[in-house]
Specification:
The protein is about 30% helix and about 25% strand. By secondary structure, the chain is α/β, with parallel strands linked by helices. Helix 2 crosses helix 3 and helix 5 crosses helix 6.
C-alpha cells in the first residue's frame, strides 16, 4: 500500500427531506408486541418513554416520488459543487444503502440497476471509466465506503471517489412496532481525493473494521408485522433493540480505540466524534466506555455532535449528513478547523462495526 497517498474529503453534501414526522404523530398509534399482542400501555406513554431513551423528537420522511437514488444524486451534486471537481474525473461512485429504492406505499426493494448506476446517470457522467457500485454493510455503509476509497487510492486503482449513504427507511416500517419511531430518511455524500501526503496535513489517518455474524446476524432483519391480522408474506425492518444495545456497548468502544491506535493518535487530540445517530443514550454510553478504555472517567464536553433529536436514524446517511452540517456551520455549537482530528464510527446490521480517524 502506498503510504505517500492521503485520502482527503474535498467536498460534502446532504439531502434532508422537508417533511417532518413528530413524536406527537405517533401518540394515537396502536402498538403491538412481537407475539402479536396489543401493548397494554397508552400510546402517549410509549412515545414519551421512547423520547427519553432515544432522544428523538422528530424525524424526516422523503416525499412520494423521491427515491433513495434521487436523494443520493442531489446530495452528490452538492458535494461535487462543494469540491469544485469535474464529475468526469470521478473514478468510482460508491453508494451505501440497505433497501435500494422502495416506491412509497409499496415495500418492494428495487436495486436493478444499482443505485450507484442511477446516480451516475442522474449526474450525466459519460466517462466509462467511472465505475459505480453499491455496498450493503448495514448502518456503517458510508464509513465502509470511505475505507474502501482509501484502500483503492493507496493501491493506485483510483484517485477520486464519490461516497454516498442514502436510505428511505420510512418505506419499510411496521407502523405497529414501536421501534419504527426510530427510523428516518436522508442522504449524505462526500467527494474523496487522493493527495500527496507530503503536501497535505489532512486526510484519513487510520481505520478499523469488525464483523460478528454468529447469533448477532439476526439482530437486525426483515420480519412480519406485529399486527395479528397482517399479511405474513410481507416483511418489514425489525430490530432486537436490547441485543443491539448490548452488542454496541461491548464492541464499538474497542473498535474505536483500535482505530485510534492504528492511526497513532492520542485520545486527547480528538476534537470531535461523529458516531452513527442510532440512539442518544447508546451513543453517549459508547463514548463513555471508549474513554474508560484510556482510563478517563469524564468525557470532554461538546465532543459529540448529534442530529438524532430532529433527524432520527437515517442509517447510512446519519454520519455524512451530520458531518456536512457541522462542516458548513449549520450546527453553531460545533465547529471544525484545519488540523482538527476527528473520529467517524458506526455500528449496524451484520453485525458490523467500523471507524475512521481523519484529520481535517
Amino acid at each position: 500500500m502506498n503510504q505517500s497517498v492521503r485520502t482527503v474529503i474535498t467536498g460534502t453534501g446532504s439531502y434532508i427531506p422537508a417533511y417532518v414526522k413528530t413524536n406527537q404523530d405517533f401518540a394515537s398509534h396502536n402498538f403491538y408486541a412481537e407475539d402479536n399482542s396489543a401493548l397494554d400501555i397508552e400510546p402517549h406513554i410509549i412515545v414519551d418513554k421512547f423520547k427519553q431513551i432515544t432522544g428523538i423528537q422528530e424525524r424526516r420522511y422523503a416525499p412520494a416520488g423521491i427515491e433513495s437514488s434521487d436523494m443520493a444524486a442531489e446530495a452528490a451534486r452538492i458535494a461535487i459543487e462543494d469540491s469544485g471537481c469535474d464529475p468526469e474525473t470521478i473514478d468510482q461512485i460508491i453508494v451505501a444503502h440497505n433497501f435500494g429504492n422502495v416506491i412509497k406505499h409499496t415495500i418492494q426493494t428495487d436495486v436493478l440497476p444499482a443505485l450507484a448506476s442511477r446516480v451516475k446517470h442522474s449526474l450525466k457522467i459519460k466517462n466509462p471509466s467511472c465505475v459505480p457500485y453499491d455496498i450493503l454493510f448495514g448502518c456503517p455503509g458510508w464509513v465502509q465506503g470511505v475505507i474502501q476509497a482509501d484502500a483503492y487510492f493507496k493501491a493506485g486503482i483510483a484517485r477520486k471517489c464519490l461516497v454516498i449513504g442514502t436510505e428511505t427507511l420510512s418505506r419499510v416500517l411496521d407502523v405497529y412496532d414501536r421501534d419504527s419511531m426510530i427510523f428516518s430518511d436522508g442522504a449524505g455524500a462526500s467527494v474523496l481525493e487522493a493527495k500527496n501526503a507530503a503536501e497535505t496535513g489532512s486526510g484519513v489517518l487510520g481505520s478499523s473494521v469488525q464483523s460478528h455474524c454468529g447469533a448477532e446476524v439476526d439482530y437486525l432483519h426483515l420480519g412480519k408485522s406485529y399486527y395479528p391480522d397482517s399479511d405474513p408474506r410481507i416483511r418489514y425492518i425489525k430490530m432486537k433493540g436490547r441485543k443491539v444495545y448490548e452488542y454496541a456497548m461491548k464492541y464499538v468502544p474497542l473498535a474505536m480505540k483500535t482505530c485510534l491506535d492504528n492511526s497513532g493518535v492520542n485520545i486527547g487530540d480528538v476534537k470531535k466524534i461523529f458516531i452513527h445517530q442510532a440512539n442518544e443514550k447508546m451513543d453517549e454510553g459508547i463514548i463513555k466506555e471508549m474513554y474508560k478504555l484510556y482510563g478517563i472517567s469524564v468525557v470532554p464536553g461538546n465532543i459529540m455532535p448529534m442530529s438524532i433529536h430532529n433527524l432520527g436514524n437515517s442509517s447510512v446517511a446519519t454520519i455524512p449528513t451530520l458531518y456536512d452540517m457541522v462542516r458548513k456551520g449549520r450546527m453553531p455549537e460545533h465547529n471544525l478547523k484545519q488540523g482538527d482530528v476527528i473520529l467517524f464510527a458506526s455500528v449496524g446490521a451484520g453485525m458490523n462495526i467500523n471507524a475512521v480517524c481523519y484529520r481535517v
